[in-house]
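Following up on my earlier thread - several people asked me to post the actual chain instead of describing it. Fair enough. Here it is, all 301 residues.
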Amino acid sequence: MKRYILLTFLFLCHLVVLGQVSLAYHLQKGDIYRVKQEAQQIITQELDGASHQITNLIDGVLEFKVLSEVPEGYKLSLTFKDLNLKMTSSIEGTLMNVQAKKVVPGDIQSKIFNTILENPVTLLLSKTGDILNVKGGDSLVSKMAKVSGLTDEFAINLMKKSLSKEFGSEALANSYKQMTFIYPNKTVQLKDSWENTYTGKLKTHNKWTLNEINGQKALISGMATIEMNIKDPNTTMRLKGTQKTSIQSNIDTGFIFTMTVEGRSSGVSTLAQLGAQELPTTIQSKITYKLINKEHVQQKL
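Reply from S.P.:
Thanks for posting it. Predicted structure:
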């Protein structure tokens, strides 16, 4: 009878352990993950009953390579393998149409964005997915400015400042936290929720929920409140809104299979040519990330 009671106790304890899930990154040196990113952003501004709409389309391929495991988490290299950008205005038509792999003679923009490709930066990734720092972003910005052909030092510095808002080390860290910073710092069970916050030009407070475990996949949903505060010489934006996220991630490695992020925010913006006049503004966005391959390479010590 005692043996039966002991076995029953051990079985029940095992069930409790099985109910707990450690959602985190468990990466190995030499792992390579390639992710396809697609994004659409629609900005609508109102002025005296008329609307102006700007549509930004971005797609590209990102490569994450695990360089080493460190006490804080992992060192990864991030390399842009492809990048395409298109910006259109409902008033002025196409404002930008760049394919980074194609350098068009005489087109400075194509030279600048071609420089992004195959120039890796280094990420320090915690096991919860927080990007603790990025190294190499500022060097990347300098390379982009150098190929512009500008010779005036003041003009070059202005370009660097502008490019740093998207491709500087701090900007890259804030940008890709959206894809990586999704895990709690404790074990959870099905239907458990946890929260995290990240800042930058887009401040986000997330509430995540583990909805399902299906084989190797963890299905996670997120709801967030967002605040956007952008200032530059030509425009400012102050917006608030909500964002929802749907994730399928690998229960073993923590890396995503797919992720979809949809957001809507509203508020006001100003344009330099209109002075202090505030324009009612809304932004709708949708970003998808999809793992397109994973491989492992043996690295030499």
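Confidence is low (pLDDT under 50) at residues 1-18. That should answer part of your original question.
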